Amino acid sequence: MNRNKKRGGGGGGRGSAPKGGGGGGDRKGAKKGKRQSFKEDPFFTNESKKRLKYDEDIRSDESSDDDRNDAVGSGEEEEEAAEEIIEETPGEKKLRLTKEYLKRLGEHERKKKEDEDDDSDDEIEKEGERDSLVAKVLQQQQLQDSGRLRRSIASRVQKPEATDEFRILVKHRQSVTAVVLSDDDVRGFSASKDGAILHWDVDSGKKEKYQWPSDEVLKSHGVKDPLGRATKHSKQMLALAVSSDGRYLASGGLDRHIHLWDTRTRQHVQAFPGHRGPVSCLTFRQGSSELFSGSYDRTVKIWNAEDRTYINTLYGHQGEVLSMDCLRKERLLTVGHDRSMMLFKVPEESRLVFRAPACSLECCSFISNDEFLSGSDNGSVELWTMLRKKPVCIVKNAHPLLAAHKDVEQKDGDRVPNGHIESYDCSSTYSWISSVTSCRGSDLAASGAGNGFVRLWSIESESNAIQPLHSLPVVGFVNSLAIAKSGGFLVAGVGKEPRLGRWGLIPAAQNGVAIHTLKLLSDTNKL
Fold first, then answer.
1. Is residue 55 packed enough to be buried (19+ CB in 10 Å), middle (13-18) or exposed (0-12)?
2. C-alpha dihedral (60, 61, 66, 68), degrees to nearest 10
3. What is the predicted pLDDT for the residue at 527?
4. Is the per-residue pLDDT at 423 higher than 60?
5. Of 277, 348, 286, which Cα lies nearest the Cα of 317?
6. Burial bucket for residue 393 (CB in 10 Å: 0-12, 13-18, 19+)
7. Which of 241, 236, 260 lies closest to 188 in space, CA to CA?
8. Whole-prediction pTM value?
9. What is d(CA 396, CA 468) in angstroms, rounded to the nearest whole number?
């Protein structure tokens, strides 16, 4: 019995083993149940539900966005395509304009050849001839731009008729001190003694005024406090210069700073301090952002408008620097009250000194890289070359004061023979040569004074002579001149007072920018 019980117990034990095994299964089941309870924990259950709900919301949003995108996708693609077409870099624009220009040249030559020879069938030969002609035209233009080839414009200027005269394009409150033209001759800029800087269109005369920012903004742009007894910066402008790309406009005046403006927005962007006297002249080097400034402190400073930094200072003048000019080469031409004109070779850090004969030079202008023009306070216009330290040609009494000698008649179409008649009064301040300029890359030049005329000159390089062309009447002091690159018109900054002082007054003058159209004979060699 006992054994049976034991066996039975054992059997029961063995029989219970499955139960125990079942119990073990229950423990395993309990473990599985624990895992299931872990998964069914409210924290994780809620997170998974939230995550599922969030995924469903995203899917629904994506489906609705897809529907909307399908509705407006084509419109956005069209807008993006339009923006891609409109927005282009300066390099892409230059390439596009160059291709269009070459295409126009090719079309012009193709039509010309068709008119000359309609029976020729050799199209390949025609294409080669057109390409060679286009290359020749481009090479000629490159030589003209670099100053190695001079255009003949002076001989094509027709004599003005009685009805042809200066007309006021833009008015200023006070005397205009500076006038400059953009490289494309479409826009112009002018400044006056009241501090006004105007931006105007050559064709329509529509003007826009540059607004001076507040003193706080000027200080943030680099303006220093006034020196000496002055408690406020003077806004009187004496000089202007515009970069070749037309992006930057530089102005200078009595506040001893060079102010840099963005011509696209007409906003003040930077001020360059450093000069210890009024800034009297400014110029950009052609094809670059290199800016030169001259001052009453007898120094010339070099700046970079793009980087807005100071580069160097040039010394040499023993008097106030009054005028300067620069072409594509790194050569700067300056004149000062020390009766000298200097040609600075910037890379070599050297200079050539040209002495004026017993007079003070007031203004200067490059004709080419090796020739330049100047005007003096004794009424003379001088022609200089790199080969001589003295003028190769002097036109004395270039602007005689005819009002003081009404009984004297001018002959040869208002032309003073050789510019020299002793009976005319040229000692007056009204006969001082206040401005000279030249048409870039040509033989046409102009000079202005306060005697009531702007005179046009022909520069003859072979004979080293200055021949008078025509006299254009204008009332007032001609403080600044600019000739269009095409030679089609001339602009003059006119005022009742001289640019650098008040030692003269012409009450009948009108302060402003005057323009005069120059009629040119057709050039047979031009396409």
1. exposed
2. 120
3. 40
4. no
5. 277
6. middle
7. 241
8. 0.71
9. 12
**Contact yes or no for 276/297 (Cβ under 8 A):** yes
Contacts with 176 (C-beta within 8 Å, 6 or more apart), sequence order: 190, 191, 192, 479, 480, 493, 494, 495, 511, 512, 513
In contact, 291 and 284? CB cutoff 8 Å: yes
Least confident of 79-93, 299-313, 357-371: 79-93
Give per-residue pLDDT as tens, 223-266: 887 765 544 567 899 999 999 999 999 999 999 999 999 999 99
Helices (H) and strands (E) in the chain, counts: 5, 28
Spatial distance between the Cα atoms of 6 and 179, rounded to a whole number of angstroms: 129
Give dist(CA 260, CA 251) in Å, integer: 7
Distance CA 231, CA 145 (A): 46
- Tokens 């005046």, residue? 253
Report DSSP letters for 198-233, one per residue. EEEETTT--EEEPPP--HHHHHHTTPPPPPTT--S-
Q: What type of residue is 296?
A: Y
Nearest partner of 392 among 359, 415, 370, judged by Cα: 370
DSSP string, 481-506: EEE-TTSSEEEEEEESS-SS--S---
User: Do the Cβ atoms of 197 and 190 come closer than 8 Å?
Assistant: yes
With contact defined as beta carbons under 8 Å apart, do 259 and 268 qualify?
Answer: yes
| CA–CA distance, 447 with 469 (Å, rounded to integer) | 11
At residue 198, φ and ψ (nearest 5 deg) are -115, 145
The model's pLDDT over 90-143, given as tens digits with 9 standing for 90+, comes to: 677 777 877 777 777 777 666 666 655 544 445 555 556 656 666 666 666 665
Mention every residue, 6+ apart, whose C-beta is less than 8 A from residue 439.
151, 153, 445, 483, 484, 485, 487
Query: For the residues of 244-289, what is the DSSP string, one character each?
Result: TTS-EEEEEETTS-EEEEETTTTEEEEEE---SS-EEEEEEPTTS-
Which of 249, 329, 247 has its CA nearest to residue 286?
A: 329
Q: Which of 317-321, 385-389, 413-417 has the lowest mean pLDDT?
A: 413-417
Under 8 Å between Cβ of 263 and 249: yes
Residue listed under structure tokens 């007894």: 229
Both structure tokens of 7: 């066996």
The four Cα atoms 293, 299, 302, 303 give a dihedral, to 10 degrees, of -60
